[in-house]
Design brief:
Order of helices and strands: EHEEHEEHEHEEHEEEE
Number of helices: 5
Number of domains: 2
Low-confidence stretches: none
Distance between the termini: 30 Å
Mean pLDDT: 94
Shape: elongated
Radius of gyration: 21 Å
């Protein structure tokens, strides 16, 4: 029976990133994907995902995102692919709404570059928008988008180059504690590991 330090279940963007980081740290790691990498049933499917520094959900994301931008640029350099496109981003809503208040809280705590525009100011600058007059927009010049599927493929390629084992078309059936680690059973085999990362998306 095979044994790995870590098994990563699901190889979308999150799973591929975990697999790459573990492999480049010298961890004996196995990645298992139920379908083929880049399939159309996962949360990483599609052309793009937005990225920005200030999240409305909580200010604690900002330091993580600052480091994330560095890591995306490093991934681009290592893989030779352009993945992160900084275009600026406008997030729009009512001034007292959860979105705008959350973003403004994040930018004020962490000093994130931004502009607060009225609906009229935003529509003058970007004529494609038609907003209710009471709305405002927080524009973050460092926002943009990531190429989702190419990012996952780049991370998988680098992970395998660093020694990760990747198996696709294999479904995980059970993950159970076993002998100081875990035992994972798929539709093909059983594998023991020290730990499992579950990145199964939807």
């Amino acid at each position: 029976m095979a044994h790995f330090d870590v098994i990563v279940c699901g190889l979308g963007v999150m799973g591929s990133a975990a697999l790459r980081e573990l492999a480049r740290c010298g961890v004996r790691v196995l990645g298992i994907e139920r379908f083929a990498p880049g399939h159309d049933r996962g949360s990483s499917h599609g052309a793009t995902r937005i990225i920005r520094l200030a999240y409305f959900e909580h200010p604690s994301y900002v330091p993580l995102l600052r480091r994330t931008y560095e890591l995306w640029r490093e991934l681009e350099q290592t893989s030779g692919s352009t993945l992160l496109h900084v275009t600026g981003i406008a997030e729009i809503g009512e001034p007292e709404g959860l979105l705008i208040k959350g973003i403004l809280g994040s930018v004020s705590i962490h000093g994130v570059r931004h502009e607060l525009l009225t609906a009229q100011e935003l529509m003058r600058r970007f004529p494609a928008f038609r907003l209710p007059p009471q709305y405002v927009a927080v524009v973050q010049p460092d926002g943009g988008f990531l190429e989702a599927e190419p990012s996952a493929h780049a991370m998988l390629t680098l992970a395998t180059q660093a020694g990760a084992v990747v198996r696709s078309g294999e479904s995980v059936r059970t993950i159970k504690p076993h002998a100081g680690g875990v035992r994972l059973t798929t539709d093909r085999t059983t594998v023991d590991a020290g730990a499992v990362v579950v990145a199964a998306g939807p």
